[in-house]
What we know:
One of its GO terms (molecular function) is calcium ion binding. InterPro entries: NUCB1_N, Nucleobindin. The chain is mostly helical. The chain has helices at residues 21-31, 35-43, 46-51, 63-90, 98-103, 118-131. The protein is built from 6 helices and no strands.
Amino acid sequence: KAEGHVEGEKVENPDTGLYYDEYLRQVIDVLETDKHFREKLQTADIEEIKSGKLSRELDLVSHHVRTRLDELKRQEVARLRMLIKAKMDSVQDTGIDHQALLKQFEHLNHQNPDTFEPKDLDMLIKAVSARHE
């Protein structure tokens, strides 16, 4: 007897193993609340997603969705800063290059820590894609 999923039931996805897995999941969940973006995502092929074409659709999502994405990005930047601080605290050398540490985090644009832009979505997609190639 096959068991089907009830509509609206949350399907648990396995952990991707990415250190930004939670951030990735939250961004996807928020983007899927926007009807237009969800439709574009469902009809896009993998090349459209990887090429950044889908990221440009971010400009068309609702203000509420953008505000939530901005909030998620600020939380992720704060989390990364805590990781960097912990790493710095564990290393006594004061010659640490903060920018070099930030560049390790390729899943978001760290030069703009306050707002979630199409570049952020593009970087998140590219980081995930590079990991799975």
